[in-house]
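Quiz preparation item.
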């Protein structure tokens, strides 16, 4: 398949050239092909020049030009084990035929407007030999019968045989199946949706395998493979279409065996009318787990909601206010208990009148504005980019609540917090009044004094960073120089750590090379050997550049889901803080202090060190403020023993949080196995993780600490240099680690 893809990429480039340059000859095309490392005959070169339809046909073939897609298709076909297959043709059918020929399955194509015979023959010749297939006229289909019909046209491609006609004329055997590529509109409730057409023509949905947003070229639409047959089905099997082989085999095995997994991505049986995407099913599972953790109970919709009204006006529409009501925007935003608190830019929202015996509107509003409410919204929201709650979806809203007494306790706690915030604002204003003394202000604020920043971060940060602050605390309060230098090490290590998160998330993505060339070019202009001699500024630049990429893509709703996939569903608030301009400003501030004073103006005296120390503590306070709400939502871990189950890969974890060791033990279920002796980042209860590049290592333990962590410091003649920032007895060590070299080569 990879050889065929090489040709497809070449023809895509060629078509773009021919679209702007019409004076090429066969010799020039042959030379161009050689530049791609492939061969093309003079006869085929002339065919491409004279038949624009052939060139366009081959260009469109790239739509499904991903080996991962066809690996999943192969596993699916093997599980069905058909003797013969009918392919509804389109440009990408050449890859399907390649798979079918490899499996030695009798294959046929329907002659239609999407079948370019010369294009098929050309790709067949140049990609390693003639493919074996027959062509069947549409009128002759009734003379044949097939075990499997494959209809996987690129989305939006018109022509050929449409889905309704296909289901009416498809010559499928009694036990045969149809595999169809579908968009979210297939599952809508209107009479012309794909699922209703299937029902009218006697087909039932057996399985839905969903690919992530943006998986296919030129679209960010969530796409699925739908399997239809005529066997009676009470429920439909829904799962993620895994592109790695082990995950694909497990999912398909669960479907064949009728196994429902606790992890919806590995397969769950649902009522077809309840299916509005795997994302919503996963959200339900995560909401249930969160409700169990909080001690909330699931209540029936009609038990909680006395009445509801959905506004539909193009302008802001006011409802008659009802007692104990809450107002929820149809597209997720802040809820309110009065319409005055809603944004007048809202075109539509939902008024819910709540039963006062089981729900307090004030609590319900607080809950909807919390992460819990966001999960409730995701359970019933529809749409790929601009997700919203429909009236029919509203009735499916899973409502979890504590008892009414607990709701009142939480409301009182929030009221207290609000009062404290108001009192702190008063104290702030008093600071500027001439008649207020420092002693008065200090006395007023003493009752609010929180745990100091260092102690807070010691318990919440990942171990590699928290351990540096542990060293900081070991110095006496008047050791300003030691403390100042340790905080510089902390910020430099933090910059490396977060840069590695960005790089690790993007490293396997198609756009990584494009983004990295831009970043690398900028850094190389300042430091030609930055990868062998990385600096604080180098890591800051990586953070700044990839943070900007993140912010730009996050602000595009159409690709936001793809961005979540890239970062393996790590907590959004953490990623937003990580990619904020404020975070870049904190890192740049620390680096400025370093460059101005450390090694740039001679030895730093204790008085000067005290000044710099205070400046760095201010930056540390800013860091705490920025990340305080999200640090607990991400975990750094090393995997232990594990095994593949029907729910996914279940394994033990050592969670590297805080400065204290030994590390806490935990367990989790993931979609794929993590590798031992590597570091990973994830957000529970998500089933995905970011595998961190080997620029951070757990290593030899010095005598003065129980565990030790090392940060990449460049390439030296003795090997790969790694720095230790949290031990007084050892500062660095050297490795010749192949995984470190892979990471270095990626960025070279």
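Solution:
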């Amino acid at each position: 398949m990879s050889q065929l893809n090489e040709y497809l990429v070449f023809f895509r480039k060629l078509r773009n050239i021919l679209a702007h340059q019409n004076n090429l000859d066969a010799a020039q095309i042959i030379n161009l092909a050689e530049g791609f490392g492939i061969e093309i005959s003079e006869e085929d070169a002339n065919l491409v020049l004279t038949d624009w339809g052939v060139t366009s046909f081959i260009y469109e073939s790239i739509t499904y030009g991903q080996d991962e897609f066809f690996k999943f298709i192969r596993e699916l076909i093997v599980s069905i084990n058909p003797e013969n297959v009918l392919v509804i043709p389109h440009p990408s059918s050449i890859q399907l035929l390649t798979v079918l020929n490899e499996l030695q399955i009798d294959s046929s194509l329907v002659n239609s407007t999407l079948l370019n015979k010369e294009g098929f023959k050309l790709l067949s010749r140049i990609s390693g030999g003639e493919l074996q297939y027959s062509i069947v006229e549409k009128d002759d289909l009734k003379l044949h019968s097939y075990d499997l019909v494959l209809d996987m046209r690129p989305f939006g491609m018109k022509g050929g045989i449409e889905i309704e006609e296909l289901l009416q004329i498809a010559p499928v055997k009694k036990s045969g199946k149809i595999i169809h590529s579908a968009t979210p509109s297939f599952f809508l409730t209107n009479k012309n949706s794909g699922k209703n057409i299937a029902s009218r023509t006697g087909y039932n949905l057996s399985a839905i395998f969903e690919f992530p947003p943006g998986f296919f070229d030129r679209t960010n639409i969530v796409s699925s493979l739908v399997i239809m047959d005529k066997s009676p089905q009470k429920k439909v099997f829904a799962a993620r279409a895994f592109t790695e082989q082990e995950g694909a085999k497990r999912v398909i095995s669960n479907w064949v065996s009728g196994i429902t997994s606790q992890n919806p991505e590995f397969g769950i049986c649902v009522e077809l009318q309840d299916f509005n995407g795997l994302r919503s099913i996963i959200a339900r599972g995560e909401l249930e787990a969160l409700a169990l953790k909080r001690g909330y109970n699931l209540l029936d919709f009609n038990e909680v909601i006395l009445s509801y009204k959905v506004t539909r006006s193009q302008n802001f529409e006011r409802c008659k206010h009802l007692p104990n009501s809450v107002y929820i925007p149809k597209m997720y935003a802040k809820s309110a208990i009065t319409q005055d608190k809603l944004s007048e830019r809202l075109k539509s929202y939902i008024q819910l009148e709540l039963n006062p015996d089981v729900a307090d509107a004030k609590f319900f509003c607080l809950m909807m504005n919390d992460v819990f409410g966001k999960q409730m919204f995701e359970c019933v929201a529809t749409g790929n980019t601009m997700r919203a709650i429909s009236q029919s979806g509203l009735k499916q809203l899973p409502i979890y609540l504590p008892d009414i007494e607990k709701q009142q306790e939480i409301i009182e706690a929030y009221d207290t917090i609000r009062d404290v915030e108001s009192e702190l604002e008063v104290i702030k204003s008093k600071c500027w009044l001439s008649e207020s003394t420092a002693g008065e202000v200090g006395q007023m604020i003493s009752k609010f004094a929180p745990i100091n920043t260092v102690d807070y971060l010691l318990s919440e940060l990942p171990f590699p960073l928290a351990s540096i602050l542990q060293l900081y605390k070991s110095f006496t309060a008047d050791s300003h120089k030691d403390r100042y230098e340790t905080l510089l090490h902390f910020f430099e290590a933090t910059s490396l750590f977060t840069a590695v998160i960005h790089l690790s998330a993007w490293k396997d993505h198609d756009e990584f090379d494009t983004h990295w060339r831009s970043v690398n070019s900028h850094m190389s202009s300042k430091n030609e050997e930055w990868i062998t001699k990385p600096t604080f500024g180098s890591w800051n630049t990586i953070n700044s550049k990839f943070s900007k990429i993140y912010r730009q893509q996050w602000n595009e709703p159409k690709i936001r889901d793809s961005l979540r996939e890239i970062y393996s569903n790590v907590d959004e608030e953490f990623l937003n803080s990580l990619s904020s301009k404020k975070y870049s400003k904190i890192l740049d501030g620390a680096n400025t202090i370093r460059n101005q004073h450390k090694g740039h103006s001679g030895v730093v005296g204790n008085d000067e060190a005290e000044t710099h120390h205070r400046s760095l503590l201010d930056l540390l306070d800013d860091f705490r403020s920025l990340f305080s709400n999200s640090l607990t939502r991400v975990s750094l871990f090393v995997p232990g023993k594990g095994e593949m189950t029907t729910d996914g890969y279940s394994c033990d974890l050592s969670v590297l949080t805080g400065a204290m060791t030994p590390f806490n033990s935990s367990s989790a279920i993931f979609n794929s196995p993590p590798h031992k002796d590597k570091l990973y980042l994830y957000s529970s209860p998500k089933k995905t993780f970011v595998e961190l590049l080997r620029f951070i290592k757990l290593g030899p333990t010095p005598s003065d600490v129980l565990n030790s962590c090392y940060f990449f410091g460049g390439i030296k003649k003795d090997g790969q240099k790694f720095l230790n920032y949290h031990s007084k007895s050892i500062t660095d060590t050297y490795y010749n680690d192949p995984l470190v070299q892979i990471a270095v080569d990626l960025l070279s």
